[in-house]
Every structure is written in C-alpha cells, then in structure tokens.
Design brief:
The chain contains 18 helices and no strands. With 434 residues, it is mainly α. The longest helix is centred in the C-terminal third of the chain and has 33 residues. This is MFS transporter.
Length: 434
C-alpha cells in the first residue's frame, strides 16, 4: 500500500512513459526492417539511424529552453504530435534521403519528451522516494522497450499497420499526462558544463560513455539487420531485441551492486572484456537458441556500462558538479551512438552481417585496453563510492532522481575532497599525448 501511495502522484506520467516507449521502441526496429525490405544497404541504413542520435544530442541543448517557454504539458503535446506525424511520414516518403532528416527531427522531439517526463517525475517525487520512483521508472522503461519488439508480430514491416500502431501509441501517450491535475514544475537553469575539466578528473568515465555509445548505437540500429541476415523471421528479430533488453534489465543491478562493494574501474574492465568476448563468439553460435543466450548475457553486460560510467563519474566529482557532468556524459554517449550506425553499417556492407558483432567486440576491446592503460598510469581520486543505479540513455534530469538526501550526504563530508590533492590529480588526469 505504501508503494502504491508513493506512485500516486506520478502514475499518469508512468502511463505516458509506457505508451510513448512502446511506440518508440517499435519504430526504431521497424524502420530498420522496412529499410532492409526496401533494398537499403547496411551503410545507408546506418546513416539513417544515426540521424536519430544526432537529433537526440541537439535536443539535449534545446529541450530545457523549449519547456521553460511553453510549459510541460504544451511542450509534451507539441513534441508528441511531431513524433506521431513523423512516424507516418516515413511511410509516405520511402526514400533514405527523406528518412534521414525525419530521424533527426524525431530524435530532437523525443529527447524533449523524455526531458518533460523526467523533470516532472523529479519534481513530483519526495526527496527520500526519488530512488524508488526512478527504479519503477526504469522497470516501465525497459519493460516497454522489450514489449515493443513483440508488436512486430502484429503485421509485416512492409505494410502500413505497424506505422499506424506507432502513431496511435504516441498519440495515446498524450492522454494521461494532459488529464493530470498536478501542478507543472519549473525547470531551473542548468550550470554550464566543462567537458575539458571532466576529461581531467574522470577520463575513464568519459571514455566509457563515448565508447559504450559506439557499441549500443550499433546494437539498437543494426541488430535487426543482422538477425534478418541470419535467417530470423520478423518475430525472431523482435525476440533477439527483447532478449538483449531483458538481459540488460535483469543483470544491471547485480553487476552494479557488485561494483559498489569492489573497485569500480576493475569491475568495469572485466565487464567490458566479457562483453567483447561474448560479441566475438556470436558469429560462431551453432544455433539460433545459442545466439539468443549470448544476446541475453551480452545485453546484461553491455547495458551496464553506461550506468557504471555514470557511477564512476560521481565517484570522482563534487555534488555541485554532478548535474553538469552528467549532461556532458549524455552528450558523449549520444555522440558515440550517432557515429555507431554509420561505422557498423559500413563494416557490415563490406564484410557481411557478422561485421556487427566484430565491430562491437573491437569497440569494447579498445575500451578495455584504455581502462587498463588509465589504471596503470594514475590512481583515480576516489575516497567514497556512489550507489549504482540501473539506467539507459536518458535526459540529464534523470540523474537528479537517483540521489536522495542520504546519498547526497555521502558527498557533503568535507573530507570527500582535499583541495590540494584534487588540484594535483587534476593535472595527472589530463590526457597525455603518449
């Protein structure tokens, strides 16, 4: 009963989240399958899918201004209408050079929707309940994404029904949030970020955010192409995606809690290399069932990397720097996601479908090698550890929900940083040319 009472102020927002992500999760996979059916090459599909992440990055800079100007509900209605109409326009204009700008527009609008949702959740939740509400939000988020893949079974990607279903789901997401009687929150101005300073204090965290984006962007965009080339039917493609997402949902927490109790950079290094090893084994899977098992394990490992990077960042920053630092991490992750479909798609065009797991294995091996290099070169400035929280690529508003007053008190101890030591290590952390 207490949990239900806790969720009462945000239940309309959670319903909107579920409907919105059902539509978004279905659209991302559907476009790849439809483009494959239309004869688009893997390289062209990669370029198209990268447009979403380009829009996502742009949206992180403009969403707050738009919400402050229009208010939460009006902004949500404005951007949801754009997303629903853009989904249908993909069906009207089946041309890669039209789909590319449509994906940019959709990505910009969608991150604004996510910012509306997460800032509203953040404002409605009491400080001591934010962590639990964020956990429920992540369950809804990942559950909707996994369920969305199964909606592919409703009809052929070559038809129009699935596009209509997407538009309906995104439009229905408007209903719960526009019916709410809750007062709309205000979005405060965010402190300016400094990526150069972040690179000085937490280079491994920044590299992990960027390189995990290079892998995850390829997964979201090109896995449907890979599964199709391996002989999976439409339902099977959805199952591959769902299995990886469920693996990410189930294994993030034990991996993260383990990292809370042990040396987090070491845990990250092992997770990266294991994810690379699993990806490298995918081309040798003897059956579809074995490949599904590998995707489950890989999803649990790969989905953990971005939240591990965020936790590693928070280990090394003062509380006043967390919001701006998390925004930089989001941009770096989004930049990696934007490049990933083009790089992976080009490799798949050159060497075939197995180029996708080979690409992902190489990216993770590179990250693992850098993690070992950083650990041998310097000692990270960490005297206390933050709590790991499962997450996916989201808005900067999400991070504020993760830390309740107790967690902030962890950092308020004056001994968390000794200023002289902080300044000394800042120089050591600066990337060298060697």
């Amino acid at each position: 009963m207490r949990s239900l009472a806790m969720l009462k102020p945000v239940k309309s927002i959670l319903w909107s989240v579920a409907l919105l992500l059902l539509g978004n999760g279905l659209l991302n996979t559907l476009l790849t399958l439809r483009g494959t059916g239309e004869g688009f090459s893997s390289a062209v599909l990669g370029m198209i899918m990268s447009g979403y992440f380009v829009g996502f990055i742009c949206g992180t800079w403009v969403s707050g201004r738009l919400i402050r100007r229009m208010g939460h509900i009006r902004t949500f209605g404005f951007c949801a209408s754009i997303c629903a109409s853009v989904a249908l326009l993909h069906l009207v204009f089946i041309n890669p050079w039209v789909w590319l700008p449509l994906r940019v527009i959709y990505g910009l609008s969608f991150i604004t929707l996510v910012t509306v949702i997460e800032s509203w959740l953040n404002s409605q939740a009491a400080s001591h309940e934010r962590g639990r509400i964020f956990a429920v939000y992540m369950v809804v988020n990942l559950g909707a994404l996994a369920t969305a893949q199964q909606l592919l079974r409703l009809s052929s990607p070559q038809g129009f029904l699935l596009f209509v279903v997407i538009a309906i789901l995104i439009s229905w997401a408007l209903l719960p949030i526009t019916l709410t009687r809750r007062v709309q929150p205000k979005i405060p101005e965010r402190p300016k970020s400094s990526l150069r300073a972040l690179l000085g204090f937490a280079p491994l965290a920044v590299a992990s955010a960027a390189l995990s984006g290079l892998a995850m962007g390829a997964f979201w965009s090109m896995t449907p192409v890979y599964a199709t080339q391996l002989g999976f039917d439409i339902g099977g493609v959805g199952l591959v995606m769902s299995v990886a997402i469920v693996g990410g949902a189930l294994l993030q927490i034990p991996i993260g809690r383990f990292s809370d109790k042990h040396d987090r950079p070491s845990v990250m290094t092992w997770v990266v290399f294991l994810a690379a090893l699993v990806a490298a084994g995918m081309p040798f899977a003897p059956s579809h069932d074995v490949l599904l098992g590998l995707y489950f394990i890989w999803g649990g490992l790969a989905f953990s990397l971005y939240p591990l990077a965020v936790a590693q960042l928070i280990d090394q920053l003062h509380p006043d720097e967390i919001v701006s630092g998390s925004a930089d991490m989001l941009v770096m992750h989004g930049a990696g996601c934007a490049v990933a479909p083009i790089a992976a798609g080009s490799l798949m065009t050159a060497v075939g479908g197995h180029g996708l797991p080979i690409y992902i294995a190489c990216v993770f091996t590179l990250l693992g090698g850098y993690a070992i290099y950083r650990r041998r070169r310097v000692t990270a400035l960490v005297t206390r550890t933050a709590h790991f929280e499962p997450m996916v690529q989201s808005s900067a508003e999400a991070l504020e929900m993760i830390f309740d007053d107790t967690q902030h008190d962890l950092f308020d101890d004056p001994s968390f940083y000794e200023e002289d030591e902080r300044q000394r290590l800042a120089g050591l952390f600066k990337p060298s040319n060697s």
